Amino acid sequence: DAKTTQPPSMDCAEGRAANLPCNHSTISGNEYVYWYRQIHSQGPQYIIHGLKNNETNEMASLIITEDRKSSTLILPHATLRDTAVYYCIVTYDKLIFGTGTRLQVFP
Amino acid sequence: DAGITQSPRHKVTETGTPVTLRCHQTENHRYMYWYRQDPGHGLRLIHYSYGVKDTDKGEVSDGYSVSRSKTEDFLLTLESATSSQTSVYFCAVAGGGSYEQYFGPGTRLTVT
Which residues of B touch A31 (CB under 8 A)? Predict the structure, then answer.
């Protein structure tokens, strides 16, 4: 069973920040938060991961709350190409994909 | 794309026939994985490998076997295909120490 809860869908205007929430209230101390996305019919793509601290890379930022029970993936300037299903995964072992959030970026 | 190829990319086969899907990588990653994806489901792990000849089962391994005789190749075999194995199959690779996996383009398998 997936250990995370994500909204099934979200919309975002092109050029605006997309903030994708994820609840993981049962996260254990040694579990990381990973984010992947899957653009239509392609293989999933790794985005970012973190343990406790906020993380940023060229694709996105990951904000993890102090109690680690939730996190937010931020795409700072969404483009049409960011339209995808985004998966939040909590794990210390294997990746277990839930159904994710379908992000639609509109012009 | 982390140098991952999958073959074939598309296959139609009949119930009861054996099928082998191949995943090939060029970057010497230690870990390799096979997932399946069905409508309405996220990806589900079938089998994985943590080295040559070292494999283990995932959450949906029944009806599937794997082999890894070389670092670069990970084979998934359906000994006797069934219609319930119609799916898109993804291979992934990873180095040690993280679950930063890189996925192949997928194989669409249809069992009639």
Answer: none
Q: Could you tell me if B92 lies within 8 Å of chain A, comparing CB atoms?
A: yes
B83: CB partners within 8 A, 6+ apart: B15, B111, B112
Nearest to B23 by CA among B79, B94, B84, B80: B94
**Chain B residue with minimum CA distance to A99:** B42
Question: Model confidence over B37-69: pLDDT tens digits?
Answer: 998 778 999 999 999 999 999 999 999 999 999
Peptide bond into B8 cis (omega under 30): yes
Question: Does position A2 have pLDDT exceeding 70, yes or no?
Answer: no
Among the listed residues B96, B59, B89, the one whose alpha carbon sits nearest the alpha carbon of residue B74:
B89
Chain A interface includes B39 (CB < 8 A)? no
* C-alpha–C-alpha distance, residues B66 and A12, integer Å: 42
Say if residues B7 and B106 touch (Cβ distance below 8 Å): no
Phi and psi at residue A3, to the nearest 5°: -100, 10
CA dihedral sign of residues B33, B37, B43, B46: negative
Q: Strand, coil or helix: what is B30? A: coil
How many CB atoms sit inside 10 A of residue B15's CB? Answer: 12
Burial zone of B63 (CB within 10 Å; 0-12 exposed, 13-18 middle, 19+ buried): middle
